[in-house]
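Sequence and structure are kept together here, with a separate record for every protein. A complete record is shown below as an example:
=====
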Amino acid sequence: MKSIIRIVVVGAAAAVLATAMPTSAFAEDVHVDSRDYGARATWRPYGDHLEITDLEKDGHSAIGGYQMGSDTYYYWNTSGQGTTRYVNLNLPENRAVGIAAATGDYQGTPTGGLRWSTLAVANGYTS
């Protein structure tokens, strides 16, 4: 009888742990604001969408980016306050991804003019 009770208890504990473990099915949206609050990057794992929103009328562009492994990419929204640039990515599934937001003064290259002191990062996952 004790063996049957032990099996039931162990089985119930395993079921609780299995439902508590994060999986790609539970990947969530991630929002990160730049340190000067002039830009917001939003990561939407379903569809691999990155949204870069310019929040302030400050003369700076909004920048959003992501890092996966050793690769880092930055995308600029140069359209001004109140606008959002939508970037549709195609990333591998079930991977950790760092999402970044910053502001800068666009100079024609991905990092030229990026105001590094405004860079803020949050962690997310692909689905």
Summary: The chain is about 15% helix and 40% strand. The beta strands are 30-33, 39-44, 49-54, 61-68, 71-77, 84-88, 96-104, 120-125. The first helix runs from residue 2 to 20. Residues 3-21 have pLDDT under 50 and may be disordered.
